[in-house]
């Protein structure tokens, strides 16, 4: 699978994603400059974390209008996969590729900490190797991660099982105490109608090696690569 | 020259912070009266902040040589070789004065400044550590300062994309009117690709790159060279305003430009801005420089030459390029949407010639600017010191309940968890952080190698106050010990010397003694000082801070898989205490927290024993013989054990209790809470006990088994008597809430 990692001015998780894709899951990967509109040779585009364009105005607002994100619409229409993490999620929402918005954390402070994510939808290419109800551990690092959508949007999102991850306790309880940013209904990640565009605030690339404290983030990539079989075990290479 | 400029007089020079003697020296060096612009250049470059007037003679006593040293003091930052072709570039700097005047921007631009010092050397910043000191967090004004400083660091570091992985926060009333914000940055670069701040090659173009210049921060260096009075608020305009986004672009553009091979030398426009770069860079290379100020990118209209030269607008660099390769450089900066403008060139003369719209506004030998006056002023121990030292802490009554005393110490803000601060910092970007904040040292892997680095900062103002020489030596030992506890071999030291006014003999004495202490410790531990800074004038209305040298140490681990953290891992393991028995309550956290006293003598320091203890700990960590290694610091043995029990609960896990017995015939408070150097608590799996004993026997250090891990309580017996028996839950709660309860 050919990956492209988008670099905006101010992106900083680009190298981390690049490292995981090339060194851990060992797939072909290249950087995509924000002015680049040519995504033709890619299967999956990653929008990484950072402060694109300084996140001035609103997080992701300027990047949402950038040439590469404009080109994403066509890429998505043709069935390409898009994974947006942290700032990438904010950008996807600002661009209208995902519903909802990301607002300032309820605590009004930046938060960098480990979170537990309850997996709700295992029908997406990113989660098909997981079990519904499984709990993943991944870190967050953001100041504007409070997901919000109005009632009709939320109802529509639920109806089509668009909510993929919710912040939860280690044993999978979706409670306020497990929510690091005050997001509506503990939402941590959502997908588009076709399931091919995933946005989440946590950082899967920071949970992809034992040395970094966990490998749950790797499961998203493994799912995507189709290297997981139905019972959740890994295919032998 | 503009007709509105003030007339140059001695009074004007004094108003700019120069003395009558210094003004005479300027006239002598120039052979004439300086112009107004020239006077501005001298006032900034001869300020304490830039010229180290009062400290230079002492600093020369620090050991700055080692086989693995690639760059010592005198450049933007120091560098050490960590093997496999890689170098670590690092430095610590203070931003105390700006942070007191405007905590958010002051701290943020402190981070910005030190990041630039690292990436001008060609290194990518991979870690930030902050050493902060404040007054009592129970005080509302102090809380506002803490909140501003922490959010400023968080804002700048997070947006820039460099993880904040460690540091410490300490509290004492002496910092209430003058907080300390010391920021250390660590960068990674190929050992043969280090860039330096040099203006070599006559005819080479001089580029201004980065942000535009405004009127912010004019005379910041001069501001940082004076004490505060009640008018500190009026100095807010001298604090710069940061833009971490532009800094990130500048980082990427500079590293990309360096990779082209078209960069000859580069320097950050920090204190004293353009004035500093245009004189220091040629001075280092024995060249001169000519610049035309009208070409400088400007954010405000009608800026005068004086303002353009002295502005401390952030996120700017002066870059000397290779002649003929200007287009390559312009292309890189254009890609990152940054200004890169040729403002002059390197000349063969030894002068800085500054023009504005063609008119010469300054013409000064670069040596005269870069070589400020040096003073060796009178220094003498303070009259009150003998009495403070003579105080006997054991003359105070003993606490009635040692368990409760331990709980209250764990809740003391200096000892309590600092999670409130570091959860606001991105600790992981770059995916190198193997040990997150909360252990003795941070550990980061070096991708593409088996290696890792360990980093720690330390410095106890109370200990230095009572005994500057030994206290400062202890700061070096403690930071190095923290690195050793993580498994790292210390390679280099950076220091920030935070003191009051050097014009007072007792302060200068503290400074001189502290330098001697650092030098002695560095010599025995065989670590060079690679750079740092001196921050004098940390006084408000005549009251100085505690003399506070902060020491940062970087060490290398040959195998990233062989590291240790400070907390107990499992029940049923043996606990050993390495190091001497000698401790003292003098200057201890216990004496302050329980008795509100700052007095007494420090425990003896035997540097040779320190060296052997650290070497033994590293050997044990390297052989995977210990499951935890923790320095005994503030709060002594009892607190070190309690920290072993509770500090591993970050992920929400339960603490691990322990049962300890010691046979020491001292008073109990001294045994439990007395502080002394060279002491480390380790835990060892029962089945590795014999191997560990053999290694300790080889190491020839004092050590003893003191207990084992397990259970839900921390209990300590001294000579058979159970004196501490507290539930680990209670200790954890006290530790977790001790600082945060003030801030939440």
* Rg of chain B (CA only): 26 Å
* DSSP summary, beta strand count of chain A: 11
- Overall shape of chain A: it is globular
Approximately how much beta-strand content do the residues of chain B carry? 15-25%
Largest sheet of chain B: 7 strands, mixed
Number of strands of chain B: 28
Provide an overview of this structure:
The complex is a heterodimer of chains A (237) and B (744). Chain A is an alpha/beta fold. Chain A has five helices and eleven strands. Chain A has helices spanning 14-24, 67-77, 87-94, 151-159, 218-224, and strands spanning 3-7, 29-33, 44-47, 81-85, 101-103, 111-119, 135-142, 146-148, 163-168, 187-191, 197-200. In chain A, the strands form two sheets. Chain A has a nine-stranded mixed beta sheet with strand order 2-1-3-4-11-10-9-6-7, sandwiched between helices. Chain A has a two-stranded antiparallel sheet with strand order 5-8. The longest helix of chain A has 11 residues, at 14-24. The radius of gyration of chain A is 16 Å and the shape is globular. Chain A starts with a strand and ends in a 13-residue tail after the last helix. Chain B has 744 residues and is of the alpha+beta class. Chain B is 35% helix and 24% strand. Chain B is built from 27 helices and 28 strands. In chain B, the strands form five sheets. A seven-stranded mixed beta sheet of chain B has the order 8-10-7-11-9-12-13, with helices on both faces. Chain B has a seven-stranded mixed beta sheet with strand order 23-25-22-26-24-27-28, with helices on both faces. Chain B is globular. Chain B starts with 9 loop residues before the first helix and ends with a helix. The A-B interface holds A 9-10, 12-13, 15-16, 19-20, 49-51, 53-56, 109-114, 139, 141, 143, 170, 203, 205-206, 208-209, 211-212 and B 151, 154-155, 158-161, 243-246, 248-249, 336-337, 422-431, 433-434, 445, 447, 560-561, 650-652.
